[in-house]
Specification:
251 residues, Ribosomal Protein L25, Chain P, Alpha/beta knot, 2 domains, six-stranded parallel β-sheet, five-stranded mixed β-sheet, 11 strands
């Protein structure tokens, strides 16, 4: 079904007020009065709606409501260094598709290209996240923001999550598989993971400086390998997130 996001204040007991851009989209789609579509409140609840025979161009009728099925059981925040060109756009889009809760971009030592106008860049990436969330059955619109410089991002990641991982191409001792097996052991029926939130930190085209890795390690961030192949800056966050989602039964 077609999906739109609405603001909670626009939801009443029986109807939901539509945004002008969504009304126009509905007209372009030529939805019939009885044809069902989804309006999501962005907080994890889906409303199955139709236009109804009395559709006046501003509201939809609520048929039923249910919990959004597209939200993972583990909250994953993706911290990715700025990349040149459209690489950040690709990584944001795919991270939303895979279930990222939030995406934070940051500047590290080896960043080749940091946007001159960060608010404008962030606004564009947020629009990409919105479109991806609509297309991929998400119950929220993941927030895209700028986290500033590397050390600030590390401190935030540690403070805001149960498990913080930094992916480093020269790490030889800890592989992502062994780390996840330790923190997400197999569950018995009706059990829940003790680790509920994960921060994943990936670098720019040139990778991380050794002193950045050492700083992260000093803050109890786990330094992790994604394998023997070196991944591009837009690929690493997608692979890391997909691995976590698969291991936690969210794929």
């Amino acid at each position: 079904m077609v999906r739109f996001f609405v603001e909670p204040p626009d939801i009443s007991a029986k109807t939901i007020r539509l945004k002008p851009e969504d009304i126009e989209h509905i007209r372009v789609l030529r939805l019939r009065p009885d044809e069902r579509f989804v309006l999501c409140d962005g907080k994890g609840t889906d409303y199955i709606c139709c236009l109804g025979d009395r559709f006046d161009g501003s509201t939809a009728e609520i048929i039923t409501q249910q919990k959004s099925a597209g939200e993972p059981t583990v909250k994953c925040t993706v911290y990715m260094a700025y990349s040149k060109g459209e690489r950040s756009e690709y990584a944001v889009q795919k991270s939303v598709e895979l279930g990222a809760h939030e995406i934070i971009l940051f500047e590290s030592e080896r960043c080749i290209a940091v946007p001159n106008n960060i608010p404008k860049k962030t606004e564009r990436l947020q629009r990409i996240a919105l479109e991806a969330a609509k297309q991929n059955n998400r119950g929220i619109i993941p927030k895209v923001s700028s986290g500033g410089r590397f050390k600030a991002v590390i401190n935030e990641a540690v403070r805001c999550s149960d498990l913080s991982l930094l992916f480093y191409e020269y790490e030889e001792n800890q592989h992502i598989k062994s780390v996840l097996e330790k923190h997400f052991p197999p569950l018995r029926e009706q059990e829940e993971f003790q680790t509920r939130s994960v921060s994943m930190i990936t670098g720019p085209e040139g990778g991380f400086e050794p002193d950045e890795v050492a700083f992260a390690q000093s803050k109890d961030v786990l330094i992790v390998s994604l394998g023997s192949r070196i991944l591009r800056s837009e690929t690493a966050p997608v692979v890391a997130l997909a691995t976590v989602m698969y291991h936690t039964n969210n794929l």
